[in-house]
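Methods — Computational structure assignment.
A single polypeptide chain was analysed. Its primary sequence is given first, followed by the predicted tertiary structure written as structure tokens.
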Amino acid sequence: MAMKVSTISRISLVLLAVLGLSACGNIEPWVKPYERDRLADPIMALDGDPVSSSYLKHVYESREGARGGEGAAGGGCGCN
């Protein structure tokens, strides 16, 4: 009986893995290119008060003595 249960569990595990991997075959982007203008709307920003955040960012840059070092994407090779 133990052999039969382990065989059934192995078969079900293999089937579950096959079904799980087959779901990755047809991946489409969630946001279509023509819908991206809606996401660029300022109301979609995560910041609740952009004026205050802009001021705090300016104060931070002044204290650090550097500009643009927070959250900007770059390659690390010196090219922007």
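Note: The mean pLDDT is 74.
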